[in-house]
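Whether sequence alone determines local backbone shape is best considered at the level of individual chains. When preparing material for the folding task, we compiled for one chain both its residues and its backbone structure tokens. The sequence in question and its structure tokens are set out directly beneath this paragraph.
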Amino acid sequence: MLFFYSFPSEFLIAIVPHEPVLLYFGKFYQPLTVALVAIIGTVMTEAINYSVFKLVIDSNLFKKIHQGKMVIKIVELFKKAPFVALLVAGLTPVPFYPFRFLVVLTRYPLVKYLLAVFLSRTPRFFILALAGYMINIPDYLLIAIFIVLISAANIPLLRRFLKDRQQK
């Protein structure tokens, strides 16, 4: 179940959070097992993300965006230490999805990208599963965290969608 959950929680711009689910599975399984199952699904999803973004970035529409001054600056900054940037982004609560674009924009090698994902996300997943194992967070609280995280991620999108509909 956790393996398959990794796909919607890590695909492109995640529609569901992975943190409360890792805490939940940590209550029932060894943290290392939870981390390894989650990372296998995550690495596979990131390989798919890389391929999808490559198709999008190679399209004519995206080539114009790629030429923007801000994008060029961000790409140049990322190129200075891409592996380190990926490690930091993967270990911390920093949103990871912008880095999915950057690796493709910079033509960062897929194998190195997947290695950085593995090395950074596995400890993060382990820590979350370990917290679930040690703290035994009540299910109702995990559900509340899940709802808060989904809302925080999707309310801005919903507002923009509703605003666009009102303008039409």
Notes: The mean pLDDT is 87. The first helix runs from residue 2 to 10. The chain is about 80% helix and 0% strand. Residues 13 and 31 are 26 Å apart (CA to CA).
